[in-house]
Amino acid sequence: MSGTFVGMPAFPKAAHDAVRNQTLRANLRHATHTIRDKRARAVAELDDWAGLREAGRQIKDHALRHLDRYLIQLEEAVQAAGGTVHWAADADEANRIVTRLVRETGESEVVKVKSMATQEIGLNEHLEARGIHAYETDLAELIVQLGGDRPSHILVPAIHRNRGEIRDIFVKEMARWGRPAPDGLPDTPAELAEAARLHLREKFLRAKVGISGANFMVAETGTLVVVESEGNGRMCLTLPETLISVVGIEKIVPTWRDLEVFLQTLPRSSTAERMNPYTSMWTGTTDTDGPHTFHLVLLDNGRTDTLADEVGRQALRCIRCSACLNVCPVYERTGGHAYGSVYPGPIGAILSPQLRGTTSEIDASVPYASSLCGACYEVCPVAIDIPEVLVHLRERVAEGGPATRRGTKVRLKPAKGHAAERAAMRASRWLFTHPAALATGQRLAARTRRFHPRTIPGPGKAWTATRDLPTVPAEPFRDWWQRTNGGKDADK
């Protein structure tokens, strides 16, 4: 994934630092609570929400089961409409393809629609290193780019910034990237948006190459779909002479009719709108409107390997609405940077380790970045059982693998302390299958409770460093039950 996240520490370390940032926590709390409350009201308007959710799940599962067939159908439809299709096995290949396509136009600047796929492969950094400047045009992505920052949310990449911080970034950095911020720029939303509009307008009118992702690809017609709320996407998709779209292969849906479901569930789950203000669809090229040249880069980058996992593959249903982030108590307190990926929050905790398939500390730690409360599953518009996948990945990490990457068997390296955890779990399994030993241990713990330490020594320090050690009761439950119920067995 993006080189901007290379070298990030494991989630516990990054989260420990993040929770101490009071400004960050205040920004996140305000933003996530506002978005999720609006989403709840928007969803409640639909009597058939549960049916739409189930329909979305079934459509995505069907598409994933027959992905090979639908990808070929998509390729044929795009080519028949005048487009060109390129296949990229990984990030390096995708970056090489896009760089070559831009160079063939003779241009050294491109404008971009907000795209998770291009962030995933680190396209901006790759182009910059080769003398091609990529300008983000989504307002939040613009803020992140101008600030030399990392995105921290799927829908609102600059959610960790408040208005004052954004104003300061515009004032200091806009002139270096193009049109400067107006003198005396205040921090009101309208004035900030106007400054961004003026800054971007010259780039839209000058650009000859646009780069996008896509929310959906329709196999039946070869149509690509982008939904957005600002209009910048429409400008990038229609004004340049050449359009290059980099899209993950899982974004495919079989038929045009399938869009009916997702164009209802995605806007309500993401921006709490009944319909996105801008829904752009294009099929190949035409002689009279839009770009004259269209290239579609189909990106794998770990997706087929993820598809091979019967439990983990459901992560590929994701339509990037970000609803799971807005209800997650862990994300609300740590923010997105702690996840070390362009995919933060609950969905990132199950998607990133599968796509990257590495032995890094961050990939081994993010499946544990959850309380397993299940709020993410309840709001997911395509019913991804994120807690189930988290437990599945934790098991994989604890056992040390195996996992498949690019057709090669590798073993995931257990994070520090997992060997001790695994030994503790095995000891617990033996204890719970020997009732007499368990009862003896409970009585001994109760009688020696006054001598218990407040922290666990050795590897257990990692647990008690951030948690209070529970106080052992004066009497085990079974002893209390037998004493108060005439000797009856508590298990009956």
TrEMBL record:
One GO BP annotation of this record: lactate metabolic process
Record InterPro entries: 4Fe4S_Fe-S-bd, 4Fe4S_Fe_S_CS, FTHF_cligase-like_sf, Helical_ferredxn, LUD_dom, LutB/LldF, LutB_C, NagB/RpiA_transferase-like
SUPFAM superfamilies the record matches: 4Fe-4S ferredoxins, NagB/RpiA/CoA transferase-like
Residue ranges of every copy of the Lactate utilization protein B C-terminal domain listed in the record: 393-484
Domain 4Fe-4S ferredoxin-type: 315-384
GO molecular function, one term: metal ion binding
Transport keyword on record: yes
Tagged with keyword Manganese: no
Domain of life, per lineage: Bacteria
Residue intervals of the LUD domain: 73-288
Signal peptide extent: none
Keywords from the named record: 4Fe-4S, Electron transport, Iron, Iron-sulfur, Metal-binding, Repeat, Transport
A Pfam family that the UniProt record links to this protein: LUD_dom
PANTHER family attached to this UniProt entry: LACTATE UTILIZATION PROTEIN B (PTHR47153)
Name this protein carries in UniProt: Lactate utilization protein
